[in-house]
């Protein structure tokens, strides 16, 4: 794969474009000749690597499964890694050279590192020699473009037609997907005259070919068409061969020989097919389509003859499925557990009566089926292998060695081949990003914002310019990975944008193996991954940190620690070896201070001390001139040093503590002070949560890249200046403002609107108890929370024009007695919270309002005695959370008002004083923010309180 070259070439281009010599100036004039020679040599190496990358791109598809080519490719990857290490060392010394901590220290480093500068010459010479040998090896072993031996031809053909065996599956063996098969059958028998294009898409191994073939072989369907054909397209299709195969299946042998189609060129072949189909009702399946380009020719070949013809595509890619007509796409999902168990038993116990699982292996069988996560390919293949084993210890051994079996057992190669086809189809820029995802633990919710920042810090995301941020480019990468059925979207935000993603366990297992073999990264502590840390470029320690080998830490680019039980002494000792880190993630780690060695990691881009007991950030933080992300959420940092404002590369700064997960108080978030001027942080996109002061609010206007801001301790005298600064931010979409205290009255009248806001939280009393007019300019808002504003008039009508609102939270907002939700209001709202409004005694809900509401939370409404009758109109409502509600309300819920809520499946009642509600909120908060793994990794005393 050429992705290692892709990464290093980007680094070469960046290192040569930074004009490091000019940056250093006269500080290290003695190494100037060395640096000049370095840049010249790197340009030559860049040229060689570009040619290698182009060569690999041309022949890699032809050489699938060629062991000689794979071995040569490993050598190329090693050379790329050597070049990358040289570039990182160069960047490290360059930044260290301008470390201005003290005159004597600076001179000491210059003398000490002069030898390191001199080593570049010999290192580059060795790389140049290795590149030359790579060319010689390529010629010696015949690894040339267009030259593929017969053995590799056979391997390629074996890959291309793997799906054919799924076509041969007996219908009696199919389990699940009843609705999908029924839907396909209905579409194919549908009476419509125009040619109809349909698609079935989903990840590899879901059974797309199997269920499509069951429909294709249905006699009722066969007799409904004049002719039919099944064409396997595959990744490496040749247009001419594809067209000839269609002719082979459609036209009888005598007519084929007469036409001489074997010698025809592609356009003539298209004409032959079109002519033949012109007056026929045909049904054609295009199985395993990887590229929309195949349709460019087939669209013309398949005549639009108004005879009711049908074309059905199976694909792993959403963009390919989009070729189909509207509403004629089926997205295939994994089997549920009951279906998985039935299918497994059919294969593993086919020799027993009724396919019954023996008691002695039942527990292991259930574990194995659970690991398959509803993937039919894995269930069938593993079940077939275990059909010949009846001893309990054999099943136990197989389960415990499942990762090794997937990587090494030839009987399971079908699974790895099918799943790896999707991985191998990825372009270079996506492949490395996807390998990075596999470093995370099993069932871990991969957060969009987090993974995007990590990719950027690692240099895996290109800077496209034209006003597009790298964060937006990274989101495009994630979208493409989901459209290729490699990542599953598990949660979306209020705007409908994907928030969290999940990798299928088997895809993750196999991708982890690839990442390890290619020395991309190691998930240490993962089942089956226990060796090779010394060769890893990236290390994610999930457990057993103290048994890992980090002796070659200077090669590491990323160090991500999930093991919360490791002592701080081990962390400090390990960090001393991580010289060239770009990513350091110590979330939930047992540390109370920032280790001194951290600020010597000069090329660090990403630093995460969130959920730790760290209290102070050292002034030496100024050395991290490349730092892009500093995450101190849920730490104990209350003040950031003046030196932090010198980090001009900073893009995201998160520092706060949540004191009340239920957000019952106005001061549920802590305030953090920033010393000094922030005017130079012009790359900053996110800043939260900072304490306001007169200088800060005026300086904010310089941060024109800011997209997300949370500012607290705001006084009325700051408002005009603050708002002027906010209007200077053309991309601001998320804003949190909290008043200085409960007595501070904020006046937002006469202020300009912020038309691009999508997320707005305002805490504090509003002047005259009225909503300011700027609220009528928030049409794009999807999330709104108003706290303790002391409104005197029912505010619901003032929000009703916000047609995009998905999440509305009113906490102590209104002092009146009645709220009214009229028909037609809030058409997209799916979450509503009404809390701490002590005078509220009536909620009017008309039919036709909030017709998409899913969750309703009522909190501390002490005067609300009866369940609002209008809830019965909201049929989409399936969750209701009731905290600190009066007894009369709860009695109404169980008695006279029970018919109103009978359609709501989940109703939870709490008292805020109960530990249950606090534990519930704590667990839910962590799970939503950081995935299910965060709960078990969270320390028992992590600074949360319920007060």
From TrEMBL:
Keywords for the protein's UniProt record, in alphabetical order: ATP-binding, Coiled coil, Leucine-rich repeat, Nucleotide-binding, Plant defense, Repeat
UniProt cross-references to InterPro entries, sorted A to Z: Apaf_helical, LRR_dom_sf, LRR_R13L4/SHOC2-like, NB-ARC, P-loop_NTPase, RX-like_CC, Rx_N, WH-like_DNA-bd_sf
Keyword Nucleotide-binding: yes
Swiss-Prot/TrEMBL GO biological process terms: defense response to bacterium; innate immune response-activating signaling pathway; plant-type hypersensitive response
GO MF entry, a single one: ATP binding
Disease resistance protein winged helix domain span: 439-510
Residue ranges annotated for the Disease resistance R13L4/SHOC-2-like LRR domain, each copy included: 556-859
NB-ARC domain sequence ranges: 180-352
UniProt xrefs under Gene3D superfamilies: 1.20.5.4130, Helical domain of apoptotic protease-activating factors, P-loop containing nucleotide triphosphate hydrolases, Ribonuclease Inhibitor, Winged helix-like DNA-binding domain superfamily/Winged helix DNA-binding domain
Superkingdom of the organism of origin: Eukaryota
Domain Disease resistance N-terminal: 20-98
Family of the protein in this entry: Belongs to the disease resistance NB-LRR family.
Protein name, entry field: Disease resistance protein RPM1-like
Organism whose genome encodes this protein: Panicum virgatum
